[in-house]
Amino acid sequence: MKFKKETRSGRAVHGKWYGDACAVAFGMELIGERWTLLVIRELMLGGRRFSDIRASLPGLSAKTLTERLETLQDLGIVERAYLPPPVSAQVYQLTEWGRGLEPALQELGRWALRSPLHDPGLLLTPVSLMLSLRTMLDPSRIGDLELWVALDVGDEHFAGRLRRGELSIHPAGDGVMSPDLRFSAPGASDFLPVFYGKRSPEEAGGRLKIEGDPALAQRFIDLFVLPPKWGS
């Protein structure tokens, strides 16, 4: 069951900041407020409860999150829905139009990673890690590889399906049964030195655990490549 979308009449959007007809300017007016893109990022893999979004973004106050979600609903980017029984919880989810922002987030991420100022040691949420894997996948390396992969980050579980040259990822509730590979770690950042730094789990401190055929696991890890730093 979905809530009827509510809008506030007379709310100026296009031109409220820049008075510029450019679609890029309009896009910034839609999603350029602080925290807005990160809220959208946390909803990109599916609907989430208010408390879950707040827990993923500890620097975001409940008041600001409420305001951002209300604005995104007014704009048609986010909608509210109920999870079916036995959960019956209210969640916020992206509309079809809102989900269309993933390619823009991917391109922004690839571009920003080229800066030598990027600090990979800061907080990384599980959803951000999953979107990073979808972004940094090099299709030219996939070949005929197809598999199911479980990605467990603390208490959060995700299922990845590599098929026909694409990687789909979605939340997996209590976890994935009998995947081809399973990667488990306490935090999202524990994946980075192995997947992007190309270090062995032992060299990276042993926090990332891998279950499955070692050769297949290495082939999967080798699919992910960071862009080169600008000026390097």
UniProtKB/TrEMBL annotation:
Keywords (A to Z) from UniProt: DNA-binding, Transcription, Transcription regulation
Superkingdom classification of source: Bacteria
Cited InterPro entries: HTH_HxlR, SCP2_sterol-bd_dom, SCP2_sterol-bd_dom_sf, WH-like_DNA-bd_sf, WH_DNA-bd_sf
Domain named HTH hxlR-type: residues: 22-120
Pfam family, one: SCP2
PANTHER family, per database record: TRANSCRIPTIONAL REGULATOR, MARR FAMILY, TRANSCRIPTIONAL REGULATORY PROTEIN
Name listed for the protein in its UniProt record: Winged helix-turn-helix transcriptional regulator
Organism: Novosphingobium mangrovi (ex Huang et al. 2023)
